[in-house]
Amino acid sequence: MVLLAFTGLANADSDQACPAFFKESFLQPTNAQKAWSEDKWTRLLGEWRALGLESLILQWSRYGDTDFHSGKTASYGELLDRIFKAARNHDIQLTLGLKYDPAFWERIEKSTAHRAVYFEQRRMERAHLLEGLAHYAHHPNFAGWYLPDEIDDINWRGLPSAPS
After folding, report:
1. Cα–Cα distance, 136 to 114 (Å, whole number)
2. Distance between CA atoms of 72 and 131, rounded to whole angstroms?
3. Rounded distance between C-alpha atoms, residue 38 and residue 84, angstroms
4. Judging by beta carbons within 10 Å of its beta carbon (0-12, 13-18, 19+), is residue 21 exposed, middle or buried?
5. What φ, ψ does residue 63 adopt, rounded to 5°?
6. Taking the CB of residue 160, how many other CB atoms lie within 10 A of it?
7. 141 vs 11, 75, 77, 87, 111, CA distance in Å?
8. Per the CB 3.0–4.6 Å rule, which of 12, 49, 100, 154 could disulfide with 90?
């Protein structure tokens, strides 16, 4: 899914450059996008840049068990590599999301002991994933990391705080 937020309409009759409607948006990488060529990404990000996009948040680099990066030891494809190249061509900053677990809400609703084990598992996964993604942090268009897990005020209310 390509998720973009527009806040206005362009004047189709105008010869002027399109006014900037938005400066930042999210992209949720999909398996279908893994097959997109570097040229397709370059054209797409060029169109978004013409609309005023300056920063793109890639909501995840791993969705469940599906990776969207090449990593140090895996051959998952090079989707993120192509997006980073296209972003560099159009001066778009990228914030890179870590793993999104589609079963997150189901897993955190279990017992406190189960939740603790789950969070430790996620901590180890995140450390391994960051190791595989570390080279992106040196890319000139890298803007930072994004944690795709959501925290609400219902599931977390009344939980004991971590020791300082």
Report:
1. 33
2. 8
3. 10
4. middle
5. -120, 110
6. 6
7. 30, 23, 20, 7, 41
8. 49
Residue 118 exposed, middle or buried by CB count within 10 Å (0-12, 13-18, 19+): middle
Q: Are 34 and 56 in contact (CB under 8 A)?
A: no
pLDDT value, residue 149 = 84
Spatial separation of the C-alpha atoms in residues 139 and 62, rounded to whole Å: 19
Please compute, for residue 155, the number of CA atoms within 13 A of its CA located in the half-sphere on the CB side: 14
**Within 13 A of 93's CA, how many CA atoms are on the CB side?**
8
